[in-house]
Amino acid sequence: MNDKVALTVQADGAFCENLKLAKSAGFKYINVGFGSFWQLLTEKTWQKTAETILSALESNGLSAINTHAPYYDLRVSSEIQDEAINEAQILCLKVSKILGASVCAFHPRTRFTGGENLNLAYRDNVRNFAPLVNEAKKQGVAVGIENLPKFPEWHPVFYSCYVEDQLRLIDYFGDPSAVCAVWDTGHANLMKAEQTESIKTLGTRIKATHIHNNFKDDDKHFAPSVGNIDWAAVAKAFKQAGYGGYFTSESNLLSGGLNGEYIKHIYDCLIKIEKLFNEA
Predict the structure, then answer these.
(1) By Cβ atoms counted within 10 A, which residue in 54, 94, 124, 167 is the most buried?
(2) pLDDT one-digit tens code per residue, 49-107
(3) What phi-psi label fits residue 118: left (phi over 0), alpha (psi between -120 and 50 degrees) or beta?
(4) pLDDT of residue 100
(5) In Å, how far from its chain's centre is CA 136?
(6) Half-sphere exposure at residue 80, Cβ-oriented, CA atoms within 13 angstroms
(7) How far apart are CA 271 and CA 38, in angstroms?
(8) Helix 46-59 to helix 15-25 angle, to the nearest 10 degrees?
(9) CA-to-CA dists, residue 265 to 2, 86, 124, 271, 274, angstroms
(10) Measuring CA to CA, which residue among 142, 130, 137, 139 is closest to residue 86?
(11) Chain centre distance of CA 101
(12) Which are the contacts of 174, defined by CB distance < 8 A and separation ≥ 6?
């Protein structure tokens, strides 16, 4: 693995400027984020959106390797449906194909109605993901099921924060080319258990990463250098798991004049993590 590091850039009003800064920092690869997209993709807008994003990437000499789909508020129970969000998620897979992305990350959902219930959440997620997996197969893009966090100060336990639930949902579909794991290091750091064992448990199911850090107190999405993750141990676990994808930052970017320096710092952090991986 050599220089397979990527930056998450949200598809918002600062997208083009952040691409320029990413290029200047040394990045070649981008994870396009629709997770906080200010306007959901629709049948009328998705093709134009895809063309605009692709043009911006190409004009900066950058490639999209992954995307992040729009998502429900984590507090919305998994059996509740919003057709606008469902449509936007399907369309994100079509956009992903046009951009050349290989994995589109999705959040599983949690059953809250009647009290938290992992079995009902699993059933709901199988139903919710089925049309996404079918569309992903048509588009040649993998659905990446992400591990969610367990917030220390929150009672809810979000589905997939435990690796056993993430694994169960991925393996239900039985198609590694269409359904895989996206491993979020910051989310995993909020769990009591060390994430290294979870990474090795998922093994080659992991096809993409979201790299960021925290102090086990909240999902801050700090740069890799700010927090208490043991990157040497995490990099070694990825090596043992047979990981062959990109190390993709999902650190929150800054606004204003310091953003360029911060993106360069993130790039340098990812190169160090990649070096730890190569030497493990």
Answers:
(1) 124
(2) 999 999 999 999 999 999 999 999 999 999 999 999 999 999 999 999 999 999 999 99
(3) alpha
(4) 98
(5) 16
(6) 12
(7) 31
(8) 30
(9) 18, 36, 40, 10, 14
(10) 130
(11) 12
(12) none
Six token digits for residue 40: 């959901």
- Structure tokens that stand for 151 in this block: 């917030």
CA distance 280 to 275: 8
Distance of CA 134 to the CA centre of its chain: 20
Average pLDDT over residues 28-57: 91
CA–CA distance, 96 with 32 (Å, rounded to integer): 9
Mapped onto helix, strand or coil, the DSSP state of residue 68 is strand
Tell me the CA distances in angstroms from 20 to 9, 257, 269, one per residue in order.
Answer: 11, 13, 19
Helix (H) or strand (E) holding 95: helix 83-99
Q: Which residue has the tokens 């090596």?
A: 239
pLDDT tens per residue, range 244-256: 999 999 999 987 7
Share of the chain above pLDDT 90, in %: 89
Residue 2 has pLDDT above 80, yes or no: no
- The residue count for the chain: 280
Q: Determine the straight-line distance between the first and last CA of the chain, rounded to whole angstroms.
A: 12
The Cα 137–Cα 96 span in angstroms is 12
- In this prediction the pTM is 0.97
Whole-number mean pLDDT of the chain?
95
Rounded Cα gap, residues 146 and 208, in angstroms: 9
Q: Hunting for tokens 């790299």 — which residue is that?
A: 211
> Are 156 and 116 in contact, with CB atoms under 8 Å apart?
yes
Residue 233 φ then ψ, to 5°: -70, -40
